Amino acid sequence: MLEKSHKHVTCQTCAGRQNSLLNHFCSDELDHLNSHRACNYYKKHQAIFLEGSFPRGVYCINQGKVKIFKRGDEGKEQIIHIAKAGEMVGFRAMFTEEPYKVGADALEESNICFISKEDFLNLMDTNPVLRNGIIKELSKELADRADFITNMAQKSVRERLAFTMLILLDVFDNEPINLSREDLANFVGTATETLIRLIKDFKEEGIVEVQTRKIHVLDRERLLQIAGK
Question: Which pTM value belongs to this model?
Fold first, then answer.
């Protein structure tokens, strides 16, 4: 259960840091980082940053999950990424010095730390390991986005759902996928009604089990086959 207080969060005790770009920081660097960040508690559905706003820094997820999405002309969301503990969000737009092309909302109760643009850029200037890690992260993201776009454009909705579920298994650390049907549909890129019908098909085929809104994957190999992996 997430504590509804961010006061207990420090860089030194952050469990998410083990899987982050800051995992190599020494004690002195962590002390410096800890004194230059602010941590906040976010309610479910609360905005982290808005599409069209100007970036002021980066956000490090201590606990919780964040959806990164873009709105279409009719206001419908297309989720393009779900970030979990240890991930940084918002630094890409900071480098371009342009408004955010996407928005970010808390998918669940979350503790998220903020590092200002000036402090983060200073960290990069003095820490070549962090700088190289950011470059690798941006390169990997470009390749991942290309794969994601290709899969979304060339696969059927059934194949896209299987592909998306495989991504979400990693996001939820192989625990049940706990996502609203609307958010899942917006990730797959389909209507909510179509998504519900396909989940029912997967359930009848013994691929998943559904409890309320939680989806338990029973047959990962079958999902891989359907997704064409």
Answer: 0.87
